[in-house]
Amino acid sequence: MSTTSTPAYDALCQRHQRIHRLSHLQSIASWDQSAFMPARGAQARAEALAEMGGLLHQLGTDPALRQLLDDAAQEPLDDFQRASLREMRRVWRSANAVPQRLVEARSLANSHCEHGWRSQRGANDWSGYVENLRPVVRYAREEAQFLSDDSGLSRYDALLDQYEPGMRSADIDRVFGDLRQWLPGVIRQVMARQADDRVIHPQGPFPAASQRALGLDAMKLLGFDFEAGRLDESAHPFCGGVPEDVRMTTRYRDDSFLQSLTGTIHETGHGRYEQNLPREWLGLPVAGARSMGLHESQSLSFEMQLASHPGFAGLLQPLVERHLGQQPGLAADNLHKLMTRVAPGYIRVDADEVTYPAHVILRYEIERPLIEGEIEVEDIPALWDAKMQELLGLDTRGNYKDGCMQDVHWGCGLFGYFPCYTLGAMYAAQWFATMRRERPTLDAEITRGELSPVFDWLKARVWSQGSRWETPELVQRASGEALNPAHFRRHLESRYLG
Length: 498
Prior knowledge:
The structure is a single chain. The protein has 20 helices and three strands. By secondary structure, it is mainly alpha-helical. The chain has two domains: about 5-165, no CATH class; about 170-495, Orthogonal Bundle (Neurolysin, domain 3). A three-stranded mixed sheet has the order 1-3-2, with helices on both faces. A hairpin with a 2-residue loop joins strand 2 and strand 3 (about 245-250). The longest helix has 29 residues, at about 5-35. The mean pLDDT is about 95.
């Protein structure tokens, strides 16, 4: 760090550290809302979160920040400070584009919709859910328009940019268009190849307490720091909190322990990224995760690249048997078959890695025209069913809970997020291709339970970098090339058809 006098930059750092501390409280309150809050606390919590969102917006749009940003740009900053200032300006510009009254109204609508979704989904109550979803979409469109007016981007691109800075729908269209060309053929080939496999389905029930203990052991195996985080239960798995206090959740079904286990492993990838973000920059935007595509690359590095590795099942078997008992279906070779079984299914979070991109393409092809005003909320179920039929050959007519109501994202106003999942899968494939090129012994090490080479690589190339580099430069520095979707295709063909 430079020792030269930088008063404006230093003042900006102090302001952002205060915002970080208040964001800490907001994040924990939001986690509690999903994990522990009693039902009758919903309205008060929604109002409290809206109030906090408004306060954070006030702090982030303080008129004094404009002058401080301009003054800091003239100061003798080192390269890191310049990167930090870039991120401060990006955050400031985004905040200033949206009025405070919209921030608060959006927060209330999102909280109300998410809380209602928890019971409405199980009841297959689309008519009740759609009443809550309409204002969420209305506010999301309004936010998108404000961001569009400021940035010159389309409404959808303006939201996408909040999650994957610099990425545009034209880029997504190219990537997803290519996927649409080759993915259906790969799915058919893999299913034909697996048709004669003998797979034993483990016999439950599997008590939630036993599944929780198994999940905790898997998290330990994957290096999660329990002195800086915890695991709880919610209606939809997620990873929240802050780097100093990561809050993960999962969910349990007594007839299928693998759904909880793989979900927990997925969230552990998110959690380890958060726990290993650069602490020396904590409180500054540059210390945060660079993008949600990169964040999903960590969860999918853990869930798909690592946990579905043929050698990883041998590491899981003793943990599974410790908590669920011994039976043929829990042997390592059978666990691996179960974790790499390819079959079209209704639920995105339970999908195998081959069919998973189809779920993301479907959501992208609905949410983009929804935000652009080309379709309305009432059109979602029919479009969903048509695209499920086209992409995966499944009928969801009348089955809202396993169709368009299955995800919490839209109810929480997270439009523009879904493409990040498939971008993350592609980044993850590229990370592991680079690791194997640099370390030919990697697969043997994973099989022996020597996972530190994976974690050390991710920490050095991704976790510890925070947002110091913009995404294309981080990817180039980490892997030696720009994002290359060919690695993802080669990964699938090697694992499932090789």
